[in-house]
Amino acid sequence: MPKPLIYDLDREGLKNLLAEWKQPAFRVNQIWEGIYRNLKSAPEEWSNLPVVLKKIMAEKTEFSGIIPVDRLESSDRMTIKTLFKTRDGQAIEAVLMKYDERRTLCISTQAGCAMGCVFCATGQMGFFRNLTSGEIVEQVLYFARELKKVGETVTNIVIMGMGEPFINYDNTLDAIDRLNDPRGFGLGARRFTISTVGLVPKIQEFTKEKRQVNLAVSLHAANDELRSKLLPINRQYPLSELIPACRDYVETTGRRITFEWALIDNVNDRLEDARELAGLVNGMICHVNVIPLNPTTKFSGNATSLERAQAFSNELNSAGVPCTIRLRRGIDIQAGCGQLAGKHHEASSNSA
Ligand code: SAH
Ligand code: SF4
């Protein structure tokens, strides 16, 4: 049995472990603060713990559930992408984006993804396994430690890396809870955004929780014919179910919802596509993020030109739907979802 990953434990779990080791309960605070506030990465770094306890911690728990194995920096140095290997050899990615004052992390929730969206590098590689809550948390701690060295902190987390977070629902929300805890990392719930491909029952469950965490839904098409071609899950949860679930989310939580739309040249970037989208979301408190497609090897579609992206965005805005164009600034470091890990998987399957 592998040793338990320390970041997989909530405070209760840590308390139980300490009891098992016959250590006093007040040590929970010291360990918790050490990990999540002071960003320690190994037992020897605790100066306020007895040597015996540090020894037990080192012997009985794991502090490195993911190990950085590759790192790419964009030419403007504003985007840093890191590839990690899990203890069982899964390749996962996380990206740090430095925009203005923000230090935004894009993190993964699964190794691969089973949803099979045709333009997505992660979807193209298939599904390997869910990440544990600790493996999700550790991606954040890794970058938080890096930023700490230059006196900076993580300000926002977007759950838009590899995988579908609502398939790995409990671990994803546990990870958010752990990072949200004011006694530790203390990142406010509003600083998190979960992006889902549109799993209706999970959107409904998430709505009931009435969390302050932001929700984004990957739409990419405003009719079932095209959406089912791009996002196979649409055959199971068509727009006639997805859109009412989104409306209900907005009405119940009072929170704005974000729709994501990857602009593919001449596929979903025409003015009539914008008008169809505006009709679909009519009256909903929402925001649309459009991103020119990031090309991948196994999808033949091309990225929209900036002019066409602008025209699409203007059409939405004039129909009363707020829209922002996001530029994939990390494009030169393959910052698209799953692209770096995809390469590693290809490399390892070629050599097998
Ligand atoms: N599984 C979740 C979150 C991870 S994907 C989801 O699908 O929402 C994060 C976002 O990147 C999604 O909106 C997804 O559609 C988008 N995406 C994936 N591949 C892309 C590509 N090649 N170009 C542009 N956006 C892409
Ligand atoms: Fe999975 Fe999201 Fe990629 Fe679709 S876009 S394959 S849901 S990671």
What labels describe this entry?
352 residues, DNA polymerase, domain 1, TIM Barrel, 2 domains, 37% helix, binds iron/sulfur cluster
Major beta sheet summary: 10 strands, mixed
Within the largest sheet, what's the order of strands? 1-2-3-4-7-8-9-10-11-12
Portion of residues in beta strands equals: 15-25%
**Structural Rg:** 21 Å
Outline the low-pLDDT stretches.
Answer: none
Tell me the span between the first and last alpha carbons.
26 Å
The helix count comes to 12
Topology pattern, helix = H, strand = E: HHHEEEEEHEHEHEHEHHEHEHEH
- Report the mean per-residue pLDDT as an integer: 93
Number of domains: 2
Which structural class do the helices and strands define?
A: alpha/beta
CATH topology of the largest domain: TIM Barrel
Shape: elongated
CATH-level-2 architecture of the largest domain? Alpha-Beta Barrel
Q: What is the C-level CATH assignment of the largest domain?
A: Alpha Beta
Strand element count:
12
